Amino acid sequence: MYVGSLFDVSSRDESGSRARTRQAILQAAIEVLSRNQTASLGEIATAAQVGRTTLHRYFAERSDLLAAVAAEGASRLNEATTRARLAEGTGAEALLRLCAAYFDLGDLLSLVFSEPALVNDPAWSTEVCDDDFHAMVARGHADGSIDPALPATWLQSVLWSQLYAGWSYLTDHQISRHEALALVLRTLTNAVKPHPG
């Protein structure tokens, strides 16, 4: 009984250690690939502070790692969407919260912009839900906070283009993330508000 308990604890510790190592590799891949899409697995292993052999134990091929990065990205995007509470407040308020939550994804955003194929991965189509976004925009049209002439599909493009502009500006100019986000939110606010006449 006692031996079994020790074995169970040991198995949990090993499982937890494996999960942490896998997560470290994925995080390193996101950071490295966001700056250099042609980075080698060796560079990613170095950034994750693991050996190349260890990386291969978790991801045998580069394609396996990229698929896992796509799934991790979809999961993080889904979590950010949940944090934005799209069903609360006016449509415009929810849209701005969503923009801020996405902006906080950091290197993942850079990777999305530099690797468009990532968003074509099946993981994104199953994890990233558009229904809530459409409902949020419809609510914004109804409550008067979003210009009814702007369809949800257009606003989705506007959101992503502003996120791209914000991250590009942040990279090219010596400003803080807070300042860049403020510019993005101000621009988005003015873009979606109804115009008289």
From TrEMBL:
Residues 40-59 bind DNA. Residues 19-77 form the HTH tetR-type domain. Keywords: DNA-binding, Transcription, Transcription regulation. It comes from the Bacteria. InterPro entries: Homeodomain-like_sf (IPR009057), HTH-type_TetR-like_transc_reg (IPR050109), HTH_TetR (IPR001647). Pfam families: TetR_N. This is TetR family transcriptional regulator. It comes from Micromonospora gifhornensis.
